[in-house]
Design brief:
Length: 173
């Protein structure tokens, strides 16, 4: 029995260090299938939050889904850029003054596990404001994913913040 399992064990160990040829057509097809094709800010879950726990919105908790071309959740490597703008009313250009900008790079096991919510299969970004609480008003939150292949994905979410007490978020995120 051990003689039969020996070759299987050797094969299993060898596949961990598989040689990848970047010009392999099968690898190219695999990468195209697995690459993200859409990002979507989850509008019912993304919200202003109080990181200080005092009820004043001093940040935004962004819940972001990333999907492949078949619509399935995928993990990514790349740079996320988030911008929060006030909303201009009665204007063709709705982006008002920029309130905040955040840049989050996912390029390692540590940064990936910091933001990936495994049970939900999406990303959670706790983004703290640099200056003061978020004033009541209408806002536009944009998200961009800059992938290592040069592709850029974009999504926008518009919301109204009442300015009343908001849920607190544990700073341990």
């Amino acid at each position: 029995m051990a003689a039969c399992l020996g070759p299987l064990w050797v094969c299993a160990c060898q596949t961990e260090h598989a040689n990848v040829q970047l010009d392999d057509p099968e690898l190219t097809a695999f990468v195209r299938l697995m690459m993200p094709k859409q990002i979507e800010i989850q509008r019912y879950l993304t919200k202003p939050v109080s990181f200080a726990g005092d009820g004043n919105a001093d940040g935004i908790e962004v819940i972001l889904a990333v999907r492949d071309k078949l619509g399935d959740p995928v993990k990514v490597v790349g740079t996320f850029q988030f911008e929060l703008h006030g909303m201009r009313m009665a204007s063709a250009d709705r982006l008002g003054k920029r309130v905040a900008f955040w840049k989050v790079q996912i390029s390692s096991d540590e940064t990936f596990t910091q933001y990936w919510d495994r049970p939900a299969r999406w990303y959670v970004f706790p983004l703290q404001l640099e200056r003061g609480p978020l004033e009541p008003g209408r806002y536009i939150l944009t998200a961009r994913l800059l992938s290592p292949t040069g592709e850029t994905l974009f999504h926008e979410y518009r919301f109204h913040h009442e300015g009343s007490s908001v849920p607190g978020v544990s700073p341990s995120y």
